[in-house]
Design goal:
Length: 237
């Protein structure tokens, strides 16, 4: 039964997150999240990336259909739910991609300083590149590329390999390569996404929510792998 005194238990993590995002929309950096992955030695690696919205309009028979409704404990099929798949992007040459190939599990931490809320969102990370044979995800990749800011697009077109030792010569060579300004052609049209540009999706399976303001509150939402439905439990902070 939902806790009547604290109506929060009727709200899934997904609904709580919508409210957190809305309250912090005007704060610079409020869409920066931290994503941790594990390498083949079991060592953790964490870094900041930009959260770029939820992946919407996924058919119900798609493997990435992960929706979560309100009053999750009473709504077993979550049929009225919102998409939970979280969009980000990265470079195929970055370490996280290698780590992801070895172990797709990851955890995102999202801290909202204004409302003192922390979300820890765990699940597999899925990388979508040029070779993906999934039409829906390939379209989503291209859409995300088109929606990037000009400077962000330019950074993916830079021939310098991220993470490699710095070399003046390599950088000079790279300076001589003409990068399409803003990732656009002479007519101002966005160029095609380069091979190294990946759509990075987090498919959440477990969310640990903690709020520190007022009476502290914590809940854990879990997605059942078989029924694909979400349920939640309130726990001590
Ligand atoms: C504010 C901020 C935003 C960032 N956004 C992204 C991003 O959206 N995608 C990304 O791959 N790296 C982003 N980075 C860089 C990463 O934190 C990291 O340095 C890079 O991805 C290489 O990480 P890796 O070698 O562990 O894969 C961002 C860094 C900062 C400080």
């Amino acid at each position: 039964m939902p806790d009547q005194e604290f109506g929060e238990t009727e709200k899934s993590w997904r609904s709580l997150l919508d409210v957190s995002i809305a309250k912090s929309r005007k704060i610079r950096g409020s869409n920066y999240v931290q994503i941790a992955t594990v390498d083949s030695n079991g060592e953790p690696h964490c870094r900041t990336v930009v959260f770029r919205g939820f992946l919407n309009n996924i058919p119900t028979d798609h493997t990435l259909c992960n929706v979560c409704g309100d009053a999750a404990s009473d709504n077993k099929d979550n049929s009225d739910g919102k998409s939970c798949i979280m969009k980000m992007c990265t470079d195929v040459r970055s370490k996280k991609v290698e780590e992801n190939a070895n172990n797709p599990l990851s955890e995102m931490v999202w801290w909202f300083p204004k409302t003192s809320e922390q979300y820890r969102i765990r699940g597999p990370l899925i990388m979508i590149g040029e070779d993906s044979d999934d039409k829906i995800l390939s379209i989503a990749r291209k859409e995300l590329w088109g929606n990037l800011s000009d400077p962000a697009r330019e950074s993916f077109l830079d021939p310098i390999t991220p993470g490699e030792p710095f070399s003046k010569d390599n950088n000079k060579e790279a300076d001589d390569v003409a990068i399409p300004r803003g990732g656009r052609d002479e007519e101002g049209k966005v160029v095609a996404p380069p091979r190294n540009f990946l759509l990075m999706l987090l498919d959440p399976r477990r969310v640990d929510y903690l709020r520190l303001t007022g009476a502290q509150y914590r809940q854990i939402d879990v997605r059942d792998d078989n029924s694909k439905s979400w349920s939640l439990v309130r726990v001590n902070p």
